[in-house]
Structures are given as C-alpha cells and as structure tokens.
Design a protein that fits this description.
The structure is a single chain. The protein is of the alpha/beta class and about 300 residues long. The chain folds into 2 domains: about 240 residues, Spore Coat Polysaccharide Biosynthesis Protein SpsA, Chain A; about 45 residues, no CATH class. The protein is built from 8 helices and 10 strands. The chain has a 6-stranded mixed β-sheet with strand order 3-2-1-6-10-7, sandwiched between helices. Strands 4-5 form a two-stranded antiparallel ribbon. Helix 4 crosses helix 8. The chain is globular. The N and C termini lie far apart (about 65 Å). It catalyses: N-acetyl-alpha-D-glucosamine 1-phosphate + UTP + H(+) = UDP-N-acetyl-alpha-D-glucosamine + diphosphate. Pfam families: UDPGP. Belongs to the UDPGP type 1 family.
C-alpha cells in the first residue's frame, strides 16, 4: 500500500504538469453488439444510460480534478486523442458534438483516422465490394477492393501520418495512456499505473487480468524462450494443452496473464514504433501493387 500511495502521488504530479496524454483506440463498429454505430456510442445497460464514450470522458474529468486538488492547481487538462476509422469518424465526431463533449473542452479532444487494409478471404483471395471484371490496368488500383480498418496496430502509422506525435511533443506530453474503447471498467489516465510506469523507467507497460478459465478467448503474455522478450500469443495460436497447463509452484495456469489492451507508452517509444511501422507498411504496399500487376498480366 505504501508503494501504491507513492505511485498515486507521482502520477497525479505528472498529470498536473501536462505530461500525460490519453490515446483511445476506437476505429471499430459495434457489429458484435448488434449495432453499426461506433463502439463507443454503445449504451452498456447502466440505469444512467451512459455510453462508453461518456464513462471514459467522465473519468478523464475526474483525474483532472484530482490532480488539480492534489497539486493546488487552478485547472488541469488531459488531452484526449481518439483514433477512429473511415467507417466511424463522422459518426464519432457528431456523437461528441451532440453531447457537448461530455463536459470536456472541445479543443482538448483530437480525432484522427487509422488506415485501411484490403479484405482477404479464407482461401487467400482479395474480396471485392461489388462484382467486378478485370478490364483495364487502371481497374487494378480502383476503390473496388473491400477494405476494413487496419487494426489497433495501425495506431503507430496513423499517429505519424497525422503528425500527432509532434502535437504531443508540443503539448509537453511524455507519457501516453493507450486503451481500447470496448471496456466499461477502464481506469482512464490511472495515476497509480502512471506513477508505477514512471518509477520503473520503462518504455512500455501493460496491465493484465488473470484468465478466468483455460479456454477463455483472450491473448496471453508469454516469454519467448529463456530470458527472451515478453510478447502476446492470441488464444487461437495457443495449443490447448498449453492453455490448460498449470504452474505447479503457484497452482495457477501456466499462461494466465491476459492482454486486455491497457497500455502505457513513452512518447519516444511511439516515435520509434511509428518509424518501424511506416517502413514496413510502405514495403507491404509495394508488394501488394506488384502482386496485383502480376495477376493482371
């Protein structure tokens, strides 16, 4: 508890100094929830009728107030960067406008779009939006390909192409709290997590939740090889015998720490990843165009 109290105070101090930005991954639609609206618009069934966006905005407001009180500041502002997609951007912006940004200032919220990637069928074929015949070279690169958001991993190139990493630096942000939208319990801008992160002096960190049972459909953190790097293995890639394996010393599942998309990054780390991802994306696009030309020929 002594450590937690110290981390809490460290986190609030960093927030009051404007060192923390919040990054929301919100490019998906609520199709699994039975809605075509952005996931953040979803009403989770509370008596208040609050949406996910509102719950998260109010938690930012709360941390701002706590930081101002703790440091005797007049006011504290946490900038909120919200990643949308071409399929959710307009609806997300209108939702925030219609709800007056849930009490936040409009200029402390920045929307930006992630990229898209062509949809591929299980047998490796590119999916077309409409029935299509190869008639000309120009058709190869038309908008006939069905596309979908390029996933949470697209955040790095999206931040770079939107020049928002520079924007964060200009605002004095050094740390970025990153999370997924579909989490009603998320502690946005958690001061304890931020203080812990600063105290450990690391470039990236993640919160984990213990798996409820062996077949729970969550990715898990594992160490690849003795002394190797920590990484995430998705539940679809984890052999059932490994998923059920028990650590005899602890009595817990051997691979029990699930990835619930709650991360903390330094701004330097995001810049490094953006450079790597941008180079990788350019190479993939060149290969895609080359492949389509070969197919056409």
């Amino acid at each position: 508890m002594d450590h937690k109290e110290r981390w809490w105070k460290m986190g609030l101090k960093a927030v009051s100094e404007g060192k923390l930005a919040v990054l929301l991954l919100s490019g998906g639609q609520g199709t699994r929830l039975g809605s075509s609206d952005p996931k953040g618009c979803f009403n989770v069934g509370l008596p208040s009728g609050k949406s996910l966006f509102q719950l998260q905005a109010e938690r930012i407001l709360c941390v701002q107030r706590l930081a101002a009180q703790a440091m005797n500041e007049g006011s504290v502002t946490i900038h909120w960067y919200i990643m949308t997609s071409p399929f959710t951007d307009d609806a997300t912006g209108k939702f925030f406008e219609s709800h007056k940004y849930f009490g936040l200032e409009a200029d402390q919220v920045t929307f930006f779009q992630q990229g898209t990637t062509p949809c591929i069928s299980k047998d490796g074929r590119y999916v077309m939006e409409t029935p299509f015949k190869w008639q000309s070279r120009e058709c190869l690169f038309s908008r006939q390909f069905a596309k979908s958001p390029d996933g949470n991993g697209g955040v790095y190139t999206a931040l770079k192409s939107s020049r928002l990493l520079e924007d964060m630096a200009t605002r004095g942000n050094k740390y970025v709290d990153c999370y997924g939208v579909d989490n009603a319990l998320v502690r946005v801008a958690d001061p304890t997590f931020l203080g812990y992160f600063i105290d450990k002096g690391v470039a990236a960190a993640a919160k984990v939740v213990r798996k409820a049972y062996p077949q729970e459909k969550v990715g898990v953190f594992v160490r690849r090889g003795k002394g190797g790097p920590l990484t995430v293995v998705e539940y679809t890639e984890l052999d059932q015998s490994l998923a059920s394996a028990v650590n005899q010393q602890t009595g817990r599942l051997r691979f029990c720490w699930s990835n619930v998309c709650l991360h903390m990054f330094t701004l330097d780390f995001l810049n490094q990843m953006a450079l790597r991802k941008t180079a990788s994306t350019i190479w993939r696009r060149k290969k895609f165009h080359l492949f389509m030309v070969i197919q056409w020929v």
